[in-house]
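User: Show me a protein chain along with its predicted structure.
Assistant: Here is one chain, sequence first, then structure tokens.
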Amino acid sequence: MRQQLSHFLKNRDIHVSPSAILITSGSLQALQLIAGGLLAKGSTILYESPSYIQSVPVFESAGTVTVGLTGKDAITQQIHKHLRTSDAALFYANPTFHNPTGRIWDLAERQQLLATCQQLSLPIIEDDAYYDLWLDTPPPPPLKALDSQGTVLYMGTFSKSMSPGLRIGWVAGPEPVINRLADSKMQTDYGASSISQYVAEQWLSTGINVQVTERIRSALKERRDKVLRYLDAYFTPIATWERPAGGFYIWLKMHQSIPINTLFEKAFQQGILLNPGQIYERNNTQHLRISYAYASMDQMQYGLKKLAEFIRDLQKIL
């Protein structure tokens, strides 16, 4: 599996030997191993806010302090500002089809972040779960592909591009770090499922993964375009959004804050389950994460139309 993955990552211009790769039970386990096996309690973790709802709690449960960076200044400027008055153990990055915002860092931003972190001796965890799910043009190379100093620990998973139930992920980095994480993993579960690894290895060695990923991209692109048309029809007067270039999500920004709990309850009563911004970023009452990857298009049209009605009603009250 590690040999196949080493070959697979060359397609992303990442050149690592099999011994520099650890297979994990999904990318979330990779985060858990890093948080529990590499970081001292009380360490500070910097991350781009908002962030994936499962990542920050993993660090916090390991006794670290998390600091979300957000605002008008570039992330690199905010890293510099933070390190002038405090320290940090690492920066957690999701630069390609970010969850939840869908944002993609351009090449210059990636180069600047890597140069800044190398200058400050600040390691980076790069979470790259959605890299293959581009819809228009391939994304810039991962941070790991630009890394010549071993600054980046690179995480990925097959749960987004192969199967949600295939809990096979990986972390690639300097061999001493990978060996330490492997020791921690042995104390946790003695290794990821051999059957799942065999399935993933066969997907890679036979090239089936390429065909399946192309079909997934085609289906996602069709879904994204339909959902964007629904948003144009129902949300133009009340919200803004950006066209996602890949991944699963649209980050919808309402023109004004509304009582999110009330909106959640009204939607839930109509069979609509929401992912409000406040579960990704505390006190965020203007955003909703819309996923176009799972629900049927009939469900999406119904849900978005109803949701727009609820939002307009609540905005009239305010």
